[in-house]
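Repro:
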Amino acid sequence: MHTIWKGSISFGLVNIPIRLHSATEDKDISLRTLHKECHTPIKYEKVCPVCNKSLDKDELVKAFEYTKGKFVVLEDSELEELKKVNEARAVEIVDFVKIEEIDPIYFLKSYYLSPNEGGSKAYSLLRKALEESRKVGIAKILIRSKEQLAVVRVYQNTLVMETIYYPDEVRSAGDVPNVPAEENITQKELDTAVMLIDQLTTEFEPGKYHDAYRTALMELIESKKNGRTVTPKERDVPETNVMDLMAALQASIDNTKVETKKPAAKKKRASPAKEKKKA
């Protein structure tokens, strides 16, 4: 697994040399934009609309727009110096908390942490201590010129660092429009909704969920590459004349009962010859 960062985890006076590895990967299918006539990929050039000319890399600078059309220009040397001053190559754990206290809306990206040379024992100690205490570490780390807040926890016997948003980066739920404050929900409607949830409740098995759109897109790409024409299959959407909430809930429960009553596929009985071999 590729190492994308080297540093250490520190808490108190404990220092653990570690390596950082990306725990997830983007599986989105990237599509290029071509000229329709000759199928040549289109170039995207950096052009100044005032000077009306294309610009080279050395003609560009970074700036912050503090008001419309007004900028503070920042030199690359200034940004590099600021980065060096603040870039202690460490995951500094500042607090330990219960993970239940962190709402999932804060979580951003996951990284695996592995011990670097000489860090195996301290790594194992932190892992065991987190498991025993049932706590996670709240840490700070500088990645790609941005200070990140992060959670350090144990996942399948491996330390994982999950970057999380700062509170001021999470928009207020109170700003979401048209959210009803309260509705006249009857007890029967509530009981029926809870019953439906109970019937659809199962254990979380990540392996059973798949990106149907990505699969269909790859099948279309492969077919066209091999000169075949494919018509995408439309998804089956159950037709219903249900108009009110209670009827919709009851119809959903009835449909769930039918699904659970479907007979399981019968196992094929082994032939006498195969049974003799097993014997």
